[in-house]
Amino acid sequence: MSLPRSAALALALTLPMVAGIGPAFAQKSSVITALDPDKDGTLDLKEVQAAASAKFDALDPDKDGTLDKKELKGVLSPKLFKSGDPDMDGTIDKKEYLALVEALFKDADPDNDGTLDAKELKTKPGKALIKLIK
Question: What domain of life is recorded for the organism (predicted)?
Fold first, then answer.
């Protein structure tokens, strides 16, 4: 017995969402795919820090080794900027940037397994982390 055409179409459109391969998953999965050299489907801290280091360099067009609020506009909220600038000099150097990345990584890893999967990257700290690495 075959399904009516409309039921078959509905099933075809719904199945990917139920299976977890809908648009939101694909978006987060692409972050993992792009930054996962060992292809294990997760990001560990070393992979995240490598991506963060490259992102820092890209955000530092004047190559002065620091990022100010203007250079980080749209990347960091004012609250995160403040927490990433412990010496309160109005800039974030690479060491401070990587420390902030590590803190967000730990916040996004509630199971403490040392890796982030697509689901963990969908959390608030995971989304903030993505802005710092991609």
Answer: Bacteria
Reported as a single tens digit per residue, the pLDDT across 21-56 is 444 443 435 889 899 889 899 999 999 999 999 999
Is residue 80 within 8 Å of 128, Cβ to Cβ? yes
Burial of 23 from C-beta contacts in 10 A (0-12 / 13-18 / 19+):
exposed
Residues 42-91 have pLDDT tens digits of 999 999 999 999 999 999 999 999 999 999 999 999 999 999 999 999 99
The verdict on domain 5-133 having CATH code 1.10.238 is yes
Query: Residue 92 belongs to what H/E stretch?
Result: strand 91-93
Domain ranges of the chain: 5-133
Report long-range pairs for 37-46 (Cβ below 8 Å, ≥24 apart): 40/115, 41/117, 42/115, 42/116, 42/117, 43/115, 43/116, 43/121, 44/114, 44/115, 44/116, 45/102, 45/105, 45/114
